[in-house]
Design a protein that fits this description.
It is elongated and about 60 Å long. By secondary structure, the chain is of the alpha+beta class. It has 2 domains: 39 residues, YefM-like fold; 40 residues, no CATH class. The longest helix is centred in the middle third of the chain and has 28 residues. Helices cover 51% and strands 17% of the residues. Strand 2 and strand 3 form a beta hairpin.
Length: 90
């Protein structure tokens, strides 16, 4: 993985993006000696998002199972959004 400071990223940004896109490299962005971000290929981002979706689905299934064991019924999404003050979109 290549490292870049935030202040030095502007000039070589196009080259870094080319390497990420064509060679599937990952670029770490540092600020004040700390890693603060990463530029990754879109395939890597898609894989991370898929993992996150799987984790969220497992957590939702567990919450539903726990609620069912307690005899609780789920709140419909439209009702939950209304109670939280969010507009309901059809």
């Amino acid at each position: 993985m290549a490292g870049r400071t935030a202040s030095k990223l502007e000039q070589p940004l196009a080259r870094s993006l080319d390497r990420v896109a064509s060679k599937r490299e990952r670029v770490i962005v540092r600020r004040n000696g700390r890693n603060v971000a990463a530029i990754v290929p879109m395939e890597d981002l898609a894989a991370l998002e898929e993992l996150e979706d799987r984790r969220d689905l497992r957590a939702a299934k567990k919450a539903l199972a726990d609620a069912k064991k307690k005899g609780e019924k789920p709140i419909p999404w439209a009702k939950a959004k209304k109670e939280l003050g969010h507009p309901v979109v059809a």
